[in-house]
Specification:
The structure is a single chain. The chain has helices at about 40-55, 70-75, 85-100, 115-125, 145-155, and strands at about 1-10, 15-20, 25-35, 60-65, 105-110. By secondary structure, it is an alpha/beta fold. A five-stranded mixed β-sheet has the order 3-2-1-4-5. The longest helix is centred in the first third of the chain and has 18 residues, at about 40-55. The radius of gyration is 19 Å and the shape is globular.
Amino acid sequence: MVATCRRSSTIQGSGAGIVITSPQGEDLEFAIKFGFKASNNEAEYEALVAGMKMTHEAGARHLLAYSDSQLVVKQVEGIYEATNKSMVQYLQQIAELRTSFESFQVIQIPREENAKADCLSRLASALEDCRTRHITIQYLPNPRAALVIQAISSPTD
């Protein structure tokens, strides 16, 4: 499974967007609203941890995670050292979670390639209070009025 992680912060708060792609190419999309203040780096880590937990719970044995955060990717790879206490704690969680997978890799991607997760994170960040809300988003390819007009004007048998 492949997971892309993204975070966003707005005046209303912060959140994360996660896109999990199954081996068959099916995307599962999640918007997570944080009930706490998070720095950009903390939000990036929250997104990665959540994505790892979700893919593990879905039964994934191999995980390729993408993030547009250079700092998070380099810290997870061990190239950069984490000195901030909360970053160290996130890295400990990730180290523990990565043992649940036969293989785990995190790759940095350009922000432009993280558009789906970015959109989801902005949606989550913009929500005022969603503790008891479930939101279904539906795609409408054509206006309903055009469909009605077409049905009314088509000849009947």
